[in-house]
Inverse folding.
């Protein structure tokens, strides 16, 4: 049984920050944190010198406005430089920013609002809600609370797909596909004709984990990439999709995942005392490069066509870990500019929204004039190193 | 297609602490934390007075040795009272104990060792490993690392089932059941006859989150209940089970879950800056009591027998949130002492091991002389409030 994703809903965070403003904020925050952390040094630099130093580092390592024009955030702190008035980044108190507990409370508050908005006009209970995030863990979660508040507790099961990084849409989809199969058996055996639907909701508050005390160059890369992202979609079985009033959807043909051996130190996502923290090695692009062709070959081995046959008619949804990843994969696989254009524009408009990014690309594919029947090849990467991907068809 | 769990493997933590020693440690830690936190008060109590006060509170609220005789831990701190020599509880530095980052590093280190031991003699790759925990989140996880180290990255997918509290074995099982169904389709279509197996591994390091600065009476309940628990098992489809050399297994007939409305404030599991933190209201037992009969009725509506018909021949695996829960459910459902005895003995031997507890009970059922054909009714509870459960049959 093949299943189909559709019914995308996107919410934008409260604030949009242009990359120019964002990069200036990053360099100022690092300069001020460095200034405060070095307050007892004899050869202490002035804040003026540190601002220039950090601007240079930012210019060298951060993602530029030609690739990311804008990022969304729920945190008003990023709109100004009055450190002492900030909710999370009153750096005089702590150059790492607020403690994790405060950030998690904020995550809880915001995601509850987000779920309330997503579900405000949805009256039919899904069989399942899968809540996907790697940026905040609170239980009862926003997914559990919406189910309780809607009185859906007897019909809707909540599953947390947490801490699986940027590629988490794929484990969420394979979990959802399994639920549909089980529920279909159950629905058949009970001879009901009700809708077979699993909702997937991503709430990534990536900008919540900024930490100005982390000053390794790789942190300037990470901190200039991520934006908040919130997206809802549903997975239907074929029958339910026909009755869903959706005009278009993405039928999942293959959902595949691999872990590359000897790559475990290339990327990590850990919980610190103040923020969740990413480490990222410069080896990642080459490791992906070495493995991507085999990975795609493996995915296509589950279909009745070869990649080379259909490549020129495929659309590529590539998770933009950074802007270089898309370019890199485009070069290795000899892809056309057009085939990766929607991945690039989502990155440009919103930044890397962690696991919410690819669903944004999928939504933009369904909203484009790309015709039904076209294949969509999706790819994402995360700690492990994990390569995850899918082949879908627009239906 | 019904699936079967079997191949249980249990690892015990490095240290076993008798409840007498454990309770004394808790009261001493609280007394010393209180002493340090009140150091500027005028009417400061002596450490001697505080020891007596905290012993009284512990005696009043904590779980006694007649219900929990012993709990396991990986933390040597619990074996002595020399605060300044402790790894996590050098309370003079911080009465909350170590920062979360140190605890998460320890979690990572220990769970890697645990996975290495579980998998030391397993040569056949499963299709999936589902890693279940609510006590530590690190990526690459121990599950991802074992897959990378075993060179299983092209055949084994890793899924994290994190932050779902004590009932997480049930979402893990429904995820696993869905994977088996999907893989069966794939195996059929590829006409292979290989094993269809999903491994589920729980690593709960509950004792890692002790926090002596939290002194609400409910914290004395929580802190006297939890022990570390580590368990591995596999889910097979029927054919694979026959070829697995397992003598006995539990066939899953129903796997059900509900969220009770208006109960979201009764229990929570949150991430603090020093430790993960549980809140627990006194309303929980009565909320469970009000809903448990309907819940079991709903589970049995998916079978062809009624609960009342078969009740006297069922074994009950009840997650012992606390010892009162088992007693409470026994009373409401008029169950025999024998039918809940294995749940009580797991609690007594090891304490509440969060999501790892029920799998320990299942293992003890398979190791008992209870005959094949008997039904096993399992129940667990967590934030939401979520009630989760299953009906299985010994095969």
């Amino acid at each position: 049984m093949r299943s189909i994703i559709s019914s995308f809903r996107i919410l934008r965070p409260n604030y949009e920050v242009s990359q120019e403003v964002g990069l200036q904020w990053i360099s100022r925050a690092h300069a001020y944190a460095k200034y405060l952390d070095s307050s007892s040094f004899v050869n202490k630099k002035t804040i003026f010198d540190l601002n220039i130093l950090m601007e240079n580092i930012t210019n060298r390592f951060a993602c530029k406005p030609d690739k990311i024009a804008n990022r969304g955030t729920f945190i008003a702190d990023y709109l100004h430089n009055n450190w002492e008035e900030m909710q999370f980044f009153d750096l005089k108190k702590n150059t790492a920013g607020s403690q994790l507990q405060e950030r998690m409370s904020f995550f809880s508050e915001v995601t509850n609002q987000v779920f309330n908005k997503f579900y405000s006009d949805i009256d039919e209970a899904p069989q399942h809600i899968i809540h996907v995030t790697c940026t905040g863990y609170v239980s009862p979660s926003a997914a559990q609370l919406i189910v309780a508040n809607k009185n859906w507790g007897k019909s809707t099961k909540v599953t947390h797909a947490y801490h699986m990084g940027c590629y988490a849409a794929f484990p969420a989809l394979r979990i959802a596909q399994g639920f549909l199969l089980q529920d279909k058996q159950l629905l058949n055996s009970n001879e009901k004709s009700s809708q077979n639907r699993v909702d997937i909701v991503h709430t990534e508050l990536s900008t919540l984990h900024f930490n100005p005390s982390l000053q390794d160059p790789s942190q300037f890369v990470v901190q200039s990439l991520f934006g908040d992202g919130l997206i809802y979609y549903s997975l239907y079985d074929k029958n339910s999709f026909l009755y869903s009033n959706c005009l278009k959807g993405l039928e999942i043909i293959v959902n595949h995942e691999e872990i590359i051996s000897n790559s475990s130190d290339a990327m990590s996502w850990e919980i610190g005392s103040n923020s969740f923290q990413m480490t990222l090695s410069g080896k990642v692009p080459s490791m992906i490069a070495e493995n991507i062709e085999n990975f795609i070959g493996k995915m296509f081995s589950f279909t009745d066509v070869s990649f080379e046959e259909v490549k020129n008619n495929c659309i590529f949804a590539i998770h933009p870990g950074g802007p270089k990843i898309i370019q890199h994969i485009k070069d290795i696989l000899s892809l056309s500019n057009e085939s990766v254009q929607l991945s690039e524009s989502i990155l440009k408009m919103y930044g890397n929204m962690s696991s919410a990014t690819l669903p944004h690309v999928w939504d933009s594919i369904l909203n484009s004039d790309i015709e039904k029947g076209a294949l969509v090849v999706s790819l994402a990467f995360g700690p492990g190193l994990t390569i995850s991907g899918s082949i879908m068809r627009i239906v």
